[in-house]
Give the backbone structure.
Amino acid sequence: MASSLDSWMKEYNEAVKLADDISGMISECSSFPASGPETQRHVSTIRRKITILGTRLDSLQSELSTLPGKQHITAKEMNRRKDMIANLKSKVSQMSSTLTSHSGNRDSLLGPEISKADAMGRTGGLDNYGLVGLQRQVMKEQDEGLDRLEETVVSTKHIALAVNEELTLHTRLIDDLDEHVDVSDSRLRRVQKNLAALNKRTKGGCSCLCMLLAVLGIVGLVAVIFLLIKYL
């Protein structure tokens, strides 16, 4: 019973450590440039860890709901653990909001949107060669924006793969646990069967031994009586 509770607390403490790690990484965002591959990689790593942390918290909450059926746990302790998970989930939500404010919105992906007035100002006074050069520059900026968008898509894919890996791990652990339970149940049934047979044989042996002792006692008693009659 204690092992299940200790296991739950161990997983919860690991989740707390992961949350502290994410919080530290978010604090480091201020030391990174506003945009760039390094910043994108850092933000993607944080998002992946937040997703993994959310999955672990969901797993902890699911395991907590099954604890009363496995061993005795007080209602006060159940409420305390529910509050622990709720507080950590609230912290995760706050970290997600903070990360969103750091990473920005569309401007961090494709750059600030150019207004019509700005576009007219950029083309004013340009000849054909100038317009061609401006068009190439705009196309280059769009290509760079698409590259940043591609990096974001790739990072999202990595997050999805990490979540899938985490779910696969949990599924494998559950399958292994079910297999161990089945093996243990089979061994327990076999031991119970052997004990029942041994108990039955032991009872039979005791009955035979009692009968033999009774016969020997009667024979001895008859011999004593015979000797008494013969010599008296």
Summary: The CA atoms of residues 21 and 49 lie 9 Å apart.
